[in-house]
């Protein structure tokens, strides 16, 4: 694409180039140009977080898991409680 005149870039591309560099901005441009992109609020999928938290929770690390995955402790507590209730109910079926 030749030399890039950063001063002539659209504002969005200028912000991206400033944050991650011109070469990486060009990769995003080539990959997504013309598309409207909306990034989810949470980086991690709820379903995958539920699975990971069930495996990683040791009874003392709720805050750490909430910080790691970007979900509230309240939501994670609810997930763990519901999971525990489901497992208990399944034992009697």
UniProtKB/TrEMBL annotation:
It comes from Furfurilactobacillus curtus. InterPro entries: Homeodomain-like_sf, Mor_transcription_activator. Transmembrane segments: none annotated. SUPFAM superfamilies: Homeodomain-like. This is Mor transcription activator domain-containing protein. It holds the Pfam family Mor. Residues 14-90 form the Mor transcription activator domain.
């Amino acid at each position: 694409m030749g030399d890039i005149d950063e001063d002539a870039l659209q504002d969005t591309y200028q912000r991206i180039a400033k944050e991650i560099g011109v070469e990486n901005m060009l990769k995003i441009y080539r990959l997504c140009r013309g598309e409207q992109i909306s990034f989810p609020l949470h980086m991690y999928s709820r379903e995958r977080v539920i699975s990971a938290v069930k495996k990683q929770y040791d009874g003392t690390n709720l805050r750490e898991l909430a910080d790691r995955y970007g979900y509230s402790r309240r939501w994670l507590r609810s997930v763990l409680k519901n999971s525990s209730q489901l497992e208990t109910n399944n034992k009697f079926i």
